[in-house]
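Retro notes (design track)

What went well: tokenization of the new backbones is finally stable.
What didn't: we kept losing track of which sequence belonged to which structure.
Fix going forward: every design gets posted as structure first, then sequence, in one message. First example under the new rule, 215 residues:
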């Protein structure tokens, strides 16, 4: 099964993708994570993407689609893919169709996480992750069971993203409205979109996604 998690920054895509990975052994393909790894490693792609990401604008379609193609090639044919943060433009949606069909894969479902914009700034400004395993947390909504210790791996080091500030969030939301939301009709026309209330508790959102995937 191959699915897309679609929604504005802070909607809960990464949080839900991590849960699906753990429960169903699917693989999370996050272009944001891939780009941050490239920036950290100082690769040519990273050097090109760094400033764009810091402004909250979109990196070129060509770069992100190439990253997705590489990850798909590195995956077992039987492992399902969760696309998180990709596609974000009509051109990327087209590329994804080609990338999947070239590999004998199809797109089974698009989950749209619907959230109030007012909630997103608070979510994003409180977001942090484990520096070791990448598990996501929130200052208020998802704290580690033991303060300062990662639930999953026991690490005591955490990090915050440089672009998770109020100013950048506004740009990222505007990018989402202008370029990403308009791709939904493509998938609606295929009858594969399920809308999920992303304002519910994290566990309830997971349950709703699981229901959507079992139909
Ligand atoms: P969020 O989870 O907050 O939506 P991401 O981690 O998905 O953020 O993305 C962070 C930044 O990386 C984006 O603001 C953008 O600059 C870049 N980026 C990630 N995915 C894409 C993509 N599919 N197309 C273009 N730019 C992307
Ligand atoms: P995205 O990948 O869509 O940008 P994240 O999954 O990183 O979003 O979630 C953003 C922040 O909001 C994280 O700190 C996460 O812990 C928190 N969060 C995610 N889902 C919910 C939810 N349903 N209710 C409250 N907080 C949430
Ligand atoms: Zn950890």
């Amino acid at each position: 099964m191959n699915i897309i998690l679609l929604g504005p920054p802070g909607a809960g895509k990464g949080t839900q993708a991590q849960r699906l990975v753990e429960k169903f052994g699917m693989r999370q393909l996050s272009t944001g994570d891939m780009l941050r790894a490239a920036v950290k490693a100082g690769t040519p792609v990273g050097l090109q993407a760094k400033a764009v990401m810091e402004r909250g604008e979109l990196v070129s379609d060509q770069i992100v689609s190439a990253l997705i193609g590489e990850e798909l090639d590195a995956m077992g044919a039987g492992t399902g893919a969760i696309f998180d943060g990709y596609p974000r433009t009509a051109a990327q949606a087209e590329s994804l169709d080609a990338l999947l069909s070239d590999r004998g894969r199809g797109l089974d479902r698009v989950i749209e996480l619907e959230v109030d914009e007012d909630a997103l700034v608070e979510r994003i400004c409180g977001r942090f992750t484990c520096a070791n395993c990448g598990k996501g947390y929130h200052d208020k909504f998802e704290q580690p069971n033991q303060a300062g210790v990662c639930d999953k791996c026991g690490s005591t080091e955490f990090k915050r993203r440089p672009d998770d500030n109020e100013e950048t969030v506004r740009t990222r939301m505007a990018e989402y409205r202008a370029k990403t939301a308009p791709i939904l009709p493509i998938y609606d026309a295929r009858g594969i979109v399920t809308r999920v209330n992303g304002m519910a508790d994290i566990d309830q959102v997971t349950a709703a996604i699981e229901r959507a995937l079992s139909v």
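Added context from the reviewer: The first strand starts at residue 2 and ends at 6.
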